[in-house]
Design goal:
The chain has 229 residues and is an alpha/beta fold. It is 29% helix and 19% strand. It contains 6 helices and 7 strands, in the order E-H-E-H-E-H-E-E-H-E-H-E-H. It has a 7-stranded parallel beta sheet, sandwiched between helices. Helix 2 links the parallel strand 2 and strand 3. Helix 1 crosses helix 6. The chain is globular, with a radius of gyration of 19 Å.
Length: 229
């Protein structure tokens, strides 16, 4: 079974791109499964189910999405194998732009959109910098010059990635994306695999439920700003 991790900022078009890729995969008679990771709420699982895709939805709630992902992805992988899935796609939003849900030796895709701002690529951490493929969306809304400048900004952040444009509405570019996905090697297990980059470090009093403001309530892993005089 192939496992592919897809991440990117909220509203960048991840689900639309995955749906277009699924259309191409189903044309090739491949069975696809999706695991949707989100924080508070999502109905994307219903969209996938309507496409005939088996799907699991996980909401992290108050827990860091990265921690939730890495604590559950092994069980999700094993579930998909039991369902005789050919390709399992995990989808997670990088809600803080620092998220790192990519796994070593597992194909990593980051979705980012042209409307997010010309300097957005350098503001995004491991989910963009550590991706194998960067899919840029919403290119039909901006000029060719803007498309090229934005792609260059992505290339400066991640020189090794394969950068491509895919239209989440028309599906243009989805076939090329699927060809790349199918080239990745199968995985028998992800147990003992490692994340490509450490997760955000924060075990502090606020992680454990503290809500009061004040230095006396701040314990654990806390970083303070340099305020000067």
């Amino acid at each position: 079974m192939k496992l592919i991790t897809v991440s990117g900022p909220p509203s960048s078009g991840k689900t639309s791109i995955i749906i277009k890729a699924i259309d191409e995969l189903q044309k090739r008679n491949l069975k696809v499964g999706v695991v949707k990771f989100d924080c508070l709420s999502t109905d994307d699982d219903k969209i996938y189910a309507n496409k005939g895709v088996i799907v699991k939805k996980g909401l992290s709630g108050a827990i860091c999405p990265d921690h939730y992902f890495v604590s559950n992805i092994e069980e999700c992988f094993n579930w998909a194998k039991k369902q005789n899935v050919d390709i399992l796609i995990s989808e997670s939003a990088g809600l803080c732009n620092r998220c790192s849900p990519h796994i070593k030796d597992i194909l990593a895709v980051c979705v980012i959109d042209n409307l997010s701002g010309i300097n957005t690529p350098k503001k995004i951490g491991p989910m963009l910098k550590g991706a194998d493929i960067v899919v840029i969306t919403k290119g039909d809304i901006v000029s060719q010059a803007e498309r090229e400048v934005f792609a260059l900004k992505v290339k400066l952040v991640n020189p090794k990635a394969f950068i491509m444009h895919v239209n989440g509405i028309t599906g243009q570019g989805a076939n090329e994306l699927v060809n790349l996905l199918l080239k990745t090697k199968d995985a028998d297990s992800i147990t003992e695999n490692k994340l490509r980059f450490p997760m955000p470090a924060a075990v502090c009093s606020y992680c454990l439920g503290e809500t009061r403001i004040g230095k006396q309530y701040q314990m654990g892993n806390v970083r303070k700003m340099e305020m000067g005089e």
